Amino acid sequence: MEAFEELVARHRDKIYARAFSMMRNEQEAVDLSQEAWVKGWQRLKQFQGDSSFGTWMTRIIINLCLDQLRKHKRQRTESIEAMDEDSGGVERQMPVITVNPTAGLERAELRQRIDKAMELLSHEHRTVLILHEFEEMEYKQIAKTMDCSIGTVMSRLFYARRKLAALLTDLKKAE
Amino acid sequence: MDYDAQLKLQAYLDGELPEAEAKDMAKCLARDQDATVLLAELKNTRQALAGGEMPRQLPESGEFFWSKIEREIERSELSQPAPAHESLLARWRRLLVPVSAAAVLGIIILVMVGPSNSSLAPESEVASEDSGSFVYRDESGTTLVWLSYPAENDIADETGGNRL
Q1: pLDDT per residue as tens digits for the range A148-172
Q2: Which of A20, A53, A162, B91 could disulfide-link to A91, CB 3.0 to 4.6 Å?
Q3: Are A112 and A155 members of one domain?
Q4: Are residues A97 and A13 in the same domain?
Q5: Is the pTM of this model over 0.80?
Q6: A72-85 pLDDT, tens per residue?
Q7: Maximum separation of any 2 CA atoms in chain A, in Å
Q8: Which of A45, A75, A105 delimits the end of a domain?
Q9: Tell me, what's the ipTM?
Q10: DSSP string of B30-76?
Q11: Quick one: A53 and A95 in the same domain?
Q12: Contact of B10 with B40, CB cutoff 8 Å
């Protein structure tokens, strides 16, 4: 148990950060991280060491967050944004951003803007970006994790990137 | 550029296209200005995201967080059924299944063989009804003598016989 406490101490911020990035709610992120650590303890024998312990725990928290987001989704109606995406049109009407909206920004400022822009995305689009850009998953892995087709992953990723570019441009204009 | 081509362009950027298709896409980019501009936008966004994730710290103390986890682990371990009980139940189940199957099979055989094949039933005759003894003989020559006890008639009572 002491060794596990040490592992928690070492990875707790990273696990919490991933939960927060997906849920965008502090209390929910704390509760889900706690649940992830309890699950981690219960499944410790299943950890084969194919990946690092941190990566293994990250997969657990991602799955818990996805389950939670699905529960939320069942409680509310589909967002207009998601319906637009399904009908396949919004991102085609967005003008291409020719000027890099993050050029010349300091790292701290860049992170803040990205964080702000990510918050404005729907959870489906935010999640696909997190899994692809931060967790460096391939399309196939994302499809499996999110329980959808590779085509849906590609479509969501495309929309998320284009929307994020537009949001970053708006933030640059507003500065 | 149609939507499928745009998604293909993105897959090219992400290294998800097979080699032959990636070569075709590179050729297409050389002559399609719209595709080149879109690719630049997608690349900028990807570069901004690389290393652009906000680091965050757990908003409560490590000790408090661990105490909650520890408590939850202990609670979940206590609520689990004892493995000894589980295995006993499993053993009972394993035993009951073949016994039940054998019993059902036995009943089926009795029902089928018994009443429908009366010719195979053991032949019986009453050797001496008064004395309360019965003799059964079957086709294989097996003989079974049955003496009723206590005596079922008055003669047996009077003679005081058949007391075994």
Answers
A1: 999 999 999 999 999 999 999 999 8
A2: A162
A3: yes
A4: no
A5: no
A6: 988 775 554 555 55
A7: 56
A8: A75
A9: 0.88
A10: HH-HHHHHHHHHHHHHHHHHTT-PPP---SS-HHHHHHHHHHHHHHH
A11: no
A12: no
